[in-house]
Request: fold
Amino acid sequence: MRKIPVLEIFGPTIQGEGMVVGRKTMFVRTAGCDYRCAWCDSAFTWDGSAKEDIVQMTSEDIWQRLQEVGGSCFDHVTISGGNPALLSAIDNLIDLLQEKSIEVALETQGSRYQNWFVKIDDLTISPKPPSSKMKTNWETLDDIIHQLEINDRLAHASLKVVIFDKEDLRYAEKVHQRYPKLAFFLQVGNDDLEEIEPQQLSRHLLNKYEWLIDQVVASTVLNRVRVLPQVHALVWGNKRGV
Ligand SMILES: C[S@@+](CC[C@H](N)C(=O)[O-])C[C@H]1O[C@@H](n2cnc3c(N)ncnc32)[C@H](O)[C@@H]1O
Ligand SMILES: Nc1nc2[nH]cc(C(=O)O)c2c(=O)[nH]1
Ligand code: SF4
Ligand SMILES: [Mg+2]
Reply:
């Protein structure tokens, strides 16, 4: 059985972002990413700083650990990273969790397709705007959305674009216009990953949330959309494992 490189298993907590915001969930965070976003809040998954903490786990190992950490207090697991879409072995983990009547969500940036995308209950695809310094491969993204559509999975998927500035907003408009059938979320970018005082950070992020709301309200393109902060950042700041 192929193993999965895991950096964190934590929860239950709430999903702080996007299409199932507020949902009680466990998190499994995989190691490794094909991107290097300028503002990545989980850079430890790819910058080598946590490489000693990576544990190679089978799906059964992960299920065991989820139960040790979360007891019987969960029925939903969110797989994030890094980019979990780099790992074909996630297929087996999804099957095992769903056999146990656990709903499965997954976060990815849309740079790689996996056949198991069509099994995910809540799939978040988060293409990266110019502020990230990454370049979107539109062909790959088109293919992912096409696969979801022909497999009748659009209702189980969403797009989420993180916004730091007006250029990012124009990018978000382009994404929404290109894929109008998908639920669309705009998320406040956290530009202060060093702040250790949650109250300071939440004040700052709420100001940025107000700015983002103002921008979206004034857009003629961004109508059938939702605007959200990272709720976990408002509550716990930059703390890891929440
Ligand atoms: C850490 S990523 C892992 C999953 C995948 N690599 C991705 O980017 O979608 C999870 C989510 O956090 C978002 N994110 C990362 N850094 C952020 C920041 N500084 N502010 C707001 N959202 C951020 C990403 O855009 C993504 O939607
Ligand atoms: N509570 C909470 N919600 C989240 N939503 C997406 C997260 C992520 O890092 O992928 C995340 C996270 O790390 N914590
Ligand atoms: S794609 Fe996701 S995990 Fe990878 S660098 Fe960007 S935000 Fe971080
Ligand atoms: Mg996060």
